[in-house]
Write a structure and sequence with these properties.
alpha+beta; 212 residues; 4 strands; four-stranded mixed beta sheet
Length: 212
């Protein structure tokens, strides 16, 4: 913990201590990697930009998933997909209004805001290790809830605690790929992405010519 105390403010250090141990291990592995200097710099930059906030997450599994999701999105901002991810929002413990006026609270609601036909939203539920011990009534309630959310226009996926704990990057990437594979960009936005990518490729060619 002294490494955290030395590098960051007391607030950031306290936020780090509130992360589950699995998330702390991931960050230290990233920070202390000796493979390349930029890895270390990226880890520091991540804290400067994103911090160790876990939002309204309630369980350690949710905090771990949110933390890894932010790491991946942070790196996406360094790629040609930066503009795409500017329109993505992640909301932990999000409330969705039902037809009867009551509300469901979901673990995560992830939404992309630039589509030809409105927005695209995905609900991610993080099922704890005790889910398989739930009663038949509880399982039936979950299934009925998923069906109602689907009727309201939401896609729902469930990730088990063991999936998130053992392979957090794999499943966080799959969630983000859902948007990359599904979102239909409006024409102006899509053209903007193409122009940005073309500009970046042009700059790379200029640098190559200067060095050769």
């Amino acid at each position: 913990m002294n490494k955290v105390d030395d590098k960051f403010s007391s607030y950031e250090a306290e936020q780090f201590r509130n992360l589950p141990s699995r998330a702390q291990d991931i960050w230290f592995t990233w920070l202390l990697s000796q493979d390349a200097c930029e890895v270390n710099n990226d880890a520091i930059a991540f804290v400067d930009i994103c911090g160790f906030e876990s939002g309204e997450c309630e369980s350690p599994i949710e905090k771990l998933f949110y933390f890894v999701l932010n790491i991946i999105i942070f790196h996406k901002f360094s790629s040609t997909k930066r503009e795409f991810y500017m329109y993505l929002s992640v909301s932990p413990q999000y409330e969705i209004e039902r037809a009867n006026g009551k509300k469901y609270r979901v673990d995560f609601y992830i939404e992309h805001h630039s589509m030809k036909e409105g927005t695209l939203g995905l609900i991610v539920e993080c099922d704890g290790h005790d889910f398989h011990e739930k009663t038949k009534e509880q399982v039936a309630y979950r299934n009925d809830r998923d069906m109602e959310l689907k009727k309201l226009g939401y896609d729902v996926i469930h990730l088990s605690g063991s999936q998130i704990y053992n392979e957090p990057f794999k499943y966080a990437r799959q969630v983000l790929e859902y948007f990359e594979n599904t979102v239909q960009l409006d024409d102006d936005f899509e053209q903007s992405l193409k122009e940005m990518e073309s500009l970046k490729n042009g700059r790379k060619e200029d640098v190559y010519k200067e060095n050769n």
